[in-house]
Amino acid sequence: MTASLVPLESTARELGPRLVLPPANAADSAPLPLDPVLWAAGANVAVRSAVRRLFGWKRYKGSVEAICRSAIDDCWTGEFFAGSAGHFKQFWTRDLAMCTPALCRLGMREQVIDSWAWGLEQFEKAGRITTTIFRRRYPRDVYAYACDSLPLMLHALRAADAPHLVDRHQELLAREVHRYVETVFDPELGMARTAGYFSGPRDCMTGRSTVFANTTIALLADLLDDFPSLPNPLRGHDVRAAMRHHHWSGDYFRDSLCREVPSGDGNVWPFFFGVFTDPDMQRRAFGTLEDRGFTNPVPLRYFERRMPESELTVPRLFTPNYQGDPSWMQLAPAYLSLLRNIDEAKMKQHRENMAALIARDGNYLELYTPDGKPYKGRAWLYHADEGMIWAAMFLDLYT
What we know:
Oligomer: single chain
Strand order of the largest sheet: 1-2-3
Number of strands: 9
Number of domains: 1
Largest sheet: 3 strands, antiparallel
CATH topology: Glycosyltransferase
CATH architecture: Alpha/alpha barrel
Order of helices and strands: HHHEHHEEHHHEEHHEEHHHEHHEH
Helix content: 40-55%
Radius of gyration: 20 Å
């Protein structure tokens, strides 16, 4: 389904005044979970980060393409593709989903389908779909119920041409559709609820009805039409029209209903997942990201600056500015895969800048500071992860 091309003025008349809400804060975030599984996972991150900071990360040999291939190979556990070969070596629903199309194009469809079959079996046992499966048997949400787990899983199953897995787990998925809509969607607003906090890729920061959350709702509405065995309680709601009215400034998507500023992810994911396909909107949004420094030193920053007032309390203690102005190697290939259709020369320039960091470090690391160094948190408790599965999306840029 393509984006609506209804003029913004017409949409505004239909939807009424645009909402501007007060900033989200720690009170809107998830409470600190008293879950030994999550605490054990946090301890594992701290230990592995300290070791990485002391002794460095694994360095793969060969070309940039060979480095990426090696990182992907190390993410394969024998049962599923993990989020990384480092401290995120668990099943991460969103990361596998985002990489599924690239992995399939790189010739790994069989392993991808095995991964989803394994993950769905664990979710079936737990009776719910979550962001993560820890220690291969504990599905949990980090840090709260996610707006993207269900939509991105269905997106991946469609991309991998695996409808048999939807049929096999039809009852679970149908229940999760209703739980998702009841939890995330505000039928009166026609978008994500403005109260509370929903986990997403930018999971250490608050935000009220973010562009990403609304992108996943619109994506889910389309996907449910593609899987007729599942109910579609979102049918009849025009989430795109609401997003254009509430989020689109004319030159970029405002990050959320509590922020007027653009964000890197808020101006990539709507186009990456095909929720909006208007070429003029995409050129304007990407022009804003280029002009305002989101692509420096490499694509792509979440924000132009650190936003401590929006950081979740616990992550802020150990990983300040984790999702402020560092450059994320997850967002980068998603952005470049779209930029190549607008400005191929600039895409290649950014790709080469990224390749230089990958070659320098001999690995596909998680994120970089504004001066091009691997991110480090406080007190040796966090160091940018290594061997990210996102290397598949970067490698796919060469195909």
